[in-house]
Inverse folding.
């Protein structure tokens, strides 16, 4: 139809820059190997850290929930869509996270948007790391609170921000626990200490830390022994947990407030029973099969060392999120394309997700990759990296 010429022009520009990317279709389940274009390739681009998307206990829990409760819930939580299983799962999550209460949102994205947009007013200020996730940024866009962005993980700049904002009623400092594009861990002990000193609230988004860091995958707060000192813990059920959803864990008063004021919670339908019960089974798996997390870290160390030994730049990564930073966007896409030909799916990421000159192929190994698969992937990286003059 006429009228979209201005969008077409922008897309043409993307095509010229080699940054127009059609969606990649998986023709199989999400696992250590996936089928793309009829070919089985090693999956290095999912967030399926522990392989839970296909764990037998999760499949069974989802199927039993469908049998018992049906496919959907038919309402938002606050009208007629709260089932006993929703409440039971939130109680289990709160116990797992060592907090008074927890509340599940439709996604991690809506959890961040819901919290930040609802708990602050124009009397308040939000202080945010410059590399925080897009959902935190959008939450900030929706709040009437003042905003101050501090340099990535820079504690001097955070201190300055706290000193400059002492006249506000509430100050909320927000950080990713593990940064999603670089795989570095936030300096949480220092952040918490500064916030205690300056009387500010702390919020951590543990999307890439849940199931990865801390005892049984409890996240970055537990990893640093900061239980009881972080006001708001956001997590996702869509990554290591293997299903879909987000949650907020914290004090009862916070959760009660969100139930009454967080707009995605109020105005969007609750999770289907299969989602809730599969997520609940995932917590059991974390508690009863911690060897999965051990395996994830073993694989991470092996793969990262392999990349570094070949001379690839993996930046500041200290977690399974391992970027292979190459510079220009088009080079990252070329590397990704060549890897796919060699049997490895590792997505290229460029501007605006990361700075244009820090484009990369981002990899995440999982607990379910075998050593042979990882070695095969490393061999492919070596071949493609040499061909393209990256190493
Ligand atoms: C992925 C991610 C989210 C969004 O989680 P979804 O459950 O996929 O919506 C939020 N924050 C961070 C840091 C993430 O990496």
């Amino acid at each position: 139809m006429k009228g979209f010429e201005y969008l077409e022009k922008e897309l043409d520009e993307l095509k010229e820059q080699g940054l127009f990317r059609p969606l990649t279709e998986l023709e199989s389940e999400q696992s250590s190997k996936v089928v793309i274009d009829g070919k089985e390739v090693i999956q290095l681009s999912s967030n399926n850290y522990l392989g839970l998307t296909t764990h037998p206990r999760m499949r069974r829990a989802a199927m039993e929930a469908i049998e018992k409760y049906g496919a959907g819930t038919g309402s938002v939580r606050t009208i007629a869509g709260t089932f006993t299983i929703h409440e039971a799962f939130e109680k289990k999550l709160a116990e797992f996270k060592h907090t008074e209460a927890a509340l599940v949102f439709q996604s991690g994205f809506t959890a961040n948007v819901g919290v930040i947009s609802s708990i602050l007013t124009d009397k308040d200020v939000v202080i945010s790391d410059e590399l925080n996730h897009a959902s935190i940024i959008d939450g900030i866009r929706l709040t009437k609170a003042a905003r101050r962005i501090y340099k990535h993980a820079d504690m001097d700049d955070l201190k300055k921000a706290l000193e400059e904002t002492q006249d506000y009623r509430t100050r909320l400092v927000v950080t990713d626990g593990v940064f999603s594009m670089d795989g570095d861990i936030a300096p949480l002990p220092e952040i918490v200490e500064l916030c205690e000193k300056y009387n500010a609230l702390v919020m951590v988004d543990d999307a890439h830390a849940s199931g990865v860091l801390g005892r049984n995958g409890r996240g970055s707060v537990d990893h640093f022994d900061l239980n009881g000192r972080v006001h708001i813990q956001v997590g996702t059920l869509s990554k290591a947990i293997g299903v879909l959803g987000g949650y907020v864990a914290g004090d009862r008063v916070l959760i009660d407030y969100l139930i009454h004021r967080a707009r995605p919670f109020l105005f969007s339908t609750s999770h289907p029973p299969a989602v809730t019960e599969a997520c609940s089974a995932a917590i059991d798996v974390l508690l009863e099969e911690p060897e999965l997390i051990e395996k994830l870290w073993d694989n991470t160390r092996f793969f990262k060392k392999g990349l570094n030994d070949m001379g690839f730049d993996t930046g500041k990564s200290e977690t399974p999120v391992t970027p292979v930073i190459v510079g220009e966007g088009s080079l990252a896409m070329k590397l990704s394309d060549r890897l796919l030909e060699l049997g490895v799916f590792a997505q290229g990421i460029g501007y605006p997700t990361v700075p244009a000159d820090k484009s990369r192929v981002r990899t995440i190994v999982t607990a379910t990759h075998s050593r042979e698969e990882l070695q095969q992937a490393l061999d492919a990286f070596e071949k493609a990296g040499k061909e393209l003059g990256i190493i």
